[in-house]
Amino acid sequence: MRKSRSGKGVRGSAGALVVALVSAVALVALSPQASRAQECLLEFRQQTGGLVTDGSTLCQTATGNTCTFELQVCVNALGCTAVDLKHKNIRASGHCGPVGKVHVIGSGTSSMCGAFAGVNVRTKSHGKKAGKCKIHAKAETDRDTITLTCQPSSSPCATTGSVALGSAANFAVLAGSTVTNTGATAVAGDLGVSPGTAVTGFPPGTVNGTIHAGDPAAAQAQIDLTTAFNDAAGRSVGAVTVAGNLGGQTLTPGLYKSTSSLEISSGDLTLDAQGDANAVFIFQMASTLTTTAGRQVILSGGAKAANVFWQVGSSATLGTTSVFKGNILAAQSITLSTGGTLDGRALTRVAMVALDTNTITKPAP
Hints:
By secondary structure, the chain is mainly beta. It folds into 2 domains: 42-151, Sandwich (Immunoglobulin-like); 166-361, no CATH class. The protein contains 3 helices and 34 strands. The radius of gyration is 26 Å and the shape is elongated.
């Protein structure tokens, strides 16, 4: 009998171990990493600005006393761990109308988006105060909420002002430690380095401007670059949260903020000034900026490269034959891969700028 009881004890212990292992697997399945993978089960998008990240605020200035936000909702976004949704008909809700028209009907694990629909938000106090409306939608474990703000014409939405580069504006290329080059790079504008002094690869590279290697002009440009970098990094009013890949989107003027890195990889990025030649685009990112081979930043609607600013918390890398627009203000380094083109400026505070058979043109004001 003792042997029998002992056997039961062993089997009982084995069963407990199996239960523990199953529980451990279940915990892994519910780990933060797995949970994050489901954060793209549902996304809001606006017709003129692309992806609207969870928690963002959209602002419009009223026409009369009303703002109309053209929105759509998507499920199983590309790059997401797709799920066959239990509830297929996903519909937005909130206290503004007709928000229910913002909906999508899922189909298996396919990436699906509903049609764009106008959501109306009215100002308050007979057009004297801003009106706000929070709307949300949910797909499985992913619930997104965004805020729509309608500002009266007497106090329009905040606009994004330009970033003053000071004497750094004279430079197409400015580095902290060194500038290196391979091949027939052409730089239209000044090239400088400070506090470092090393500039290599010119020739065969050419500079249609002046080379400032550790001289007072480069030192002053670095001071002004630091001021501009801190200005761009410190902007916060009206910031739109973005993350990951911006490829394939069309964005309108404003301030865009990422708490990590940004990339342009799955398609080209279009910046649409909507007819405003003074429109400003500022992109803040805590970490890296990367483009893959052949990708482009396209300017439309009167947008100017001089009014586009990329504030990069660490380093930027532009892919082979990519075409980039705007001023890159990087804390560390900038690398332009073979054949890449930059209509703008490559400005680093600490480390190098590395070039390889590139064309860099300081943009017109």
